[in-house]
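Re: Re: token formats

Sure, here are both.
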Amino acid sequence: MLFRRRKPADILERLRTMLWPRRSFWRSAQYFAKRVLRLTATPHAIAAGVAAGVFVSFLPFIGLHFILAAALAWLMAGNLIASAFGTAIGNPITFPIIWATSYKLGCAILGAKATHGDAPIQLGKLLERLEFGQLWDPLLKPMTVGGFPIGLAFAIVFYVLTRWGVAAFRRQRQLRLLERARRRAEAQAMAAGGA
């Protein structure tokens, strides 16, 4: 393999890079942005895919984000790969913020009282017995209701930014290609005139 590590990464190193990028978060964000800009689809399809992924990241259904984002992107005629990139907005750093705000907003919308004073939800025991019905009312329902408007707002912002970015990137690339073709034609004309 061409770019293989000399010393294979151990489990701790792999876990660290999953939670904290090797270079920086900014560099990882730039990598995702470049990957999205270079997708071969219409600007609407790429932007709709990213927006679908961003929207789904605000819903509390961990493990289903890729599937839900792909389904939503398909319904909106968006790019499925862009929808997978859009789900990167939900990550171990942003999930606590997303969940807290969506839960608070959901409780406010539903008029429900947050379960701070009640007995804490025994999440491990409920998941062990797969009792999702008992999780729905106190936790998942407020997070879903609260995540919907927040996710929609972020999806609209990301749609506009992505569509604008893809169009600008393609315009710049087209201008660079035209400039390169013009210089090549001038060089060929000068070579033909000098011969």
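Second one below.
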Amino acid sequence: MAEAHTIQGEHVRMPVRIRQADACSALFAADVAAARGILAATGLEPVTVFGRAVVSLAFVRYVDGDLGPYHEFAFSLMARQPGRKGSTGAYIHWLPVNQSFTCEAGQSIWGFPKLMADIDITPVRGGKRCAVRVDGQLVVALRIADGLPMPGGAGGASIDAYTYRDGLLRRTPWVMNPARVRGRPGGARVELGDHPVAEQLRSLGLPRTALFSSGIGALRMTFDDATTVLQTREGR
């Protein structure tokens, strides 16, 4: 496991620490067949709840961390390795950011599907809204309404983040330490544009009512180095 990586002439040491951020997210029930299609090349299978897959949409404003300040939007699926207990994690399918340093670091260190995009996070009446545009084209907008205060530590988790790039399935340990958490059933509004990723979200059944949405007012995170889980034929 590497102790440091060189990105744009700078050393990024493991683990990467995010000291200050805030985030909003929503979970949605989704079409299982469409989820399997998205996961087909990875070797993962969707986690199902009452016969439905689970999709997460989230946006994060990174204020202070080892990769600098930036905005990020995440489209992920809950997934697991077939036949392996305790392997449930978040498969990160699409991860646009608005700064080049974190984009290159995410791609080369962890295999994250980061790309450059315009990400506008704004306060709106009763919540926050994030709009993501690629080459000036709206892909997705997500509005999260304010929820009710939740107990201290709610939303904290140690979870595997799965990524798939260049034929390699990787797993990254990811620890969240949230504070000032608010949540509620529903509470999310999704707007989809005319873009291939928007079409994938439509195939999953979005837009639809969220299972649950949340906002984290103060978030600290730690990312360890990635390990390779599987090399598929594409990567051989």
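The mean pLDDT is 94. Residues 138 and 193 are 5 Å apart (CA to CA).
- S.
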